[in-house]
Amino acid sequence: MKTIDARGLSCPEPVIMLRKAMASGENAYQLIVDNHASKENTTRYGQSQGYQVSVEMQGTEYTLTFKK
Q1: pLDDT tens digits for range 5-42
Q2: Is 54 helix (H, G, I), strand (E, B) or coil?
Q3: In this predicted structure, what is the pLDDT of residue 29?
Q4: Which of 9, 19, 37, 46 is positioned for an S-S bond with 66, CB 3.0–4.6 A?
């Protein structure tokens, strides 16, 4: 599973990073973000691409897992 670290970045950067990673065609990705807007936007994007999204929160960071 590919892990994408987008901490410290604001949208649309995390979405762009996720889109580039998804272009590789893998079935699962993990994304780490540290703000609510990035969590919401990347979740919506992943779902629009057919991925199931689960979210874990640890302190101020969100770890999102995208699976087909």
Answers
A1: 999 999 999 999 999 999 999 999 999 999 999 999 99
A2: strand
A3: 97
A4: 46
pLDDT value for 46? 97
Ranges of H-type helices in the chain: 13-22, 36-48
Do the beta carbons of residue 55 and residue 25 sit within 8 Å? no
Topology of the domain comprising 2-67? Translation Initiation Factor IF3 (3.30.110)
How many Å apart are CA 67 and CA 1, to the nearest integer? Answer: 10
Structure tokens at 2: 């590919």
For residue 64, which phi and psi values (nearest 5 degrees)? -105, 135
Tell me the C-alpha distance between 68 and 4, whole Å.
17
d(CA 53, CA 19): 14
Backbone dihedral angles phi then psi of residue 35, each to the nearest 5 degrees = -145, 150
